[in-house]
Structures are given as C-alpha cells and as structure tokens.
TrEMBL record:
Source organism superkingdom: Eukaryota
Organism per entry: Alligator mississippiensis
Keyword Oxidoreductase annotated: no
Database matches in Pfam families: Pentaxin
This protein's name: Neuronal pentraxin-1 isoform B
Amino acid sequence: MCSASSSAPAQGGGAEELRSTVLQLRESVLQQKETILNQKETIRELTAKLGRCESQSLLDALPNEAKPGGRKPGGFPKNTMGDLSRAPAAETLHQLGQTLQALKARLENLEQFSRLNASGQGGSLKDVLQSKIDDLEKQVLSRVNSLEEGKFNGKNESEERGKIESTLTSLHQRISDLEKGQKDTRPTDRFQLTFPLRTNYMYAKVKKSLPEMYAFTVCMWLKSNASPGVGTPFSYAVHGQANELVLIEWGNNPMEILINDKVAKLPFTINDGKWHHIGIAWTTRDGVWEAYQDGTQVGNGENLAPYHPIKPQGVLVLGQEQDTLGGGFDATQAFVGELAHFGVWDRKLSPGEVYNLATCSTKALAGNVIAWAEGSIDVYGGATKWTFEACRQIN
C-alpha cells in the first residue's frame, strides 16, 4: 500500500480510500481482540465449574461403560462405528473444556494470521465461528449446571453428549476451512493432526498403502495426557488380518506394538501432555526390535513375528484401531491428543538416524515409504490439521 501511494501521489482519492481501509481493518482487529478476551473469561469460568463438577459424588451414579484394560483378542469383533463414546461424564466434560481451550488458541492464531495478511473475509468468518463457540459454551455450562443439580439420567446425558460432539465436529470443520488460508505460506510437512475427543469417528487415513516389508522403522511425534491409555496412534490392516501392524496403549496396559497379531510391550512414558518423539524399528530376521523415545533407545527384544513380512495393499489409519479393513473403530481404543511427522522406512534406522529425527536435525531423513506431507493424508469426523513445527514447539 505504501508503494502504491508513493507511485501515485496525485491520486488523493485513492490514498484516502487506502487510509479508510486500513482504519477499518484496525478497528476490526481491535473488536476481534475484545471478543477473544471476553471468551477467555468465559473459558476460565467454565473450567472452574468443570473442576467443581468432577468432585461431585453424584457423578459416581452416572453410566460408565468403559471397557477393562487388556488387548483385544484377534479376529473381527463387533463393528461399533455407530456408537458414541461412553466416557464417564466428568471425564467427558473435562475433555470438552480442553477442546474449547484448544479452539480458542486456534482462533487466536487465525486472528494473528488474518491481521498480518489483512484478510477481511477471514474476519467475517471468525465472527461466525466465535458466535458458534459462544453457543457451544452455553450448552456445556447448561450441562454442568444440570449435572451439579443431579438432573441428568443416562438417556438425556447421552443425547446431550451427542449434540455437543456434533457441534464440536462442525466447529472443527469450519475452523479447518479458515486455516486452509495458511497452507500457501508454510511447508507441506509443518502440520499436525489433532484428535480432541475419544470417539469412533475421528481419524485420518494415509492415502498410500505399505509395500511388502521385511524390515521397517516407524517414527512420529505424539502429545497426549489421555488416561487410561493414549489409545491407538496408528493401525495398518490387510485382508484377513486387522492387526497386521498396530501401535496401541489401551486401558491400564503399557503401549504395545502388534505385528500379525503378535505382541511386544514397549517401555514408553508419554501421557504427560508434552511432545515426545517415539520410534520403533523391526526386522523379520529373528523378529528383532528396538524402541526409541526422544532419541534414546529405551527397549529392545526379539521373536516378534519372526520371518513374517509385512503384507502389502492394506489400509493405514491414524488415530483409530481397525477391527475390519478400514473400519470397525472402537471409541475406547481411539487416540486422544496430537500427532505429527509420522514416517515409515523399509529398513531399520540406526540409533543416530533416529536421534537426528528426535532432535530436528537438518540431517533428519524423510520416510522413504511414508513421508509426512499434507497432501498425503485425509482427515475425517472432526479430526483437524493445523500448523505445527516440531522444533519450535519442543525447544
């Protein structure tokens, strides 16, 4: 705008129009800031009420159908795609509160992005989103009040959960649409996937399948404080074997890697709400495996599906465990948290190569089978993609 003004000083009308536009944008930004500050106050009130609600003994009488810990046996059990999550009411409310705060942070990020890019369209869309968040907060507050007064029974508690989760899904999608405006300004690998709730409908699907592999390394960044168990960061199913390659932490069990339904327990400790880099390397020769956390080897073993090559032409899903090829998701096994830089190699990486990935070294290798790229992953059910740069978040 400064360049345009200096090149045509005689065009006073054009300069006045530019100044008017700048003033309007500035006023819009100030209004958005005021709205966000008001919403932060509402969130603090909501969080306090959620804390009080969790301490109420009335919650002990609400339905709790969470499954006991343990790995699901092989085969193809009941398809639960149509079920809603059955987390206890207090846990669900806590998750909703965390989700709303995450949405606030994303809107603040979008407000800053729009200000830097002077996007009037982005501002109008944010107004709509903020209005939807206000409505959602009212629903949650109403639900908290009803719980405190003991008004909920199992049926309407489930109905309310369904309504709120549906609204969240719609809201996530609208914010994702707005965030697409940032894609042209960032590298294609600087994004993360967010799974805010334990459901059986939020997931991501890798467009590319795996080839036949006699060795592999799988690495990724994870952030979660879900309990019990962070769920299933990824699962790979093929015809005739839903557990061809699965990483899962279910119930109170340690995290496990499954290969052809054979299991090894992994000594990971990652559900502290912080970003962690994990890696698993394996070879079919004697079924030897190593586990890495934050660049350091923390475990190893052998006889894990020895001499069984990973089968090709399957379905690779992030965030859910597959009981059937590409489906049969169970909410109790869903991943809750954030995931980024998922990569697959068709060989065992060396400890030094894994360390380079965990420390964001310029020498870090991209996956030669699956590389982390925004165009290679589709998201469903309200799972979202948004800007993430591992080193900036970790350091």
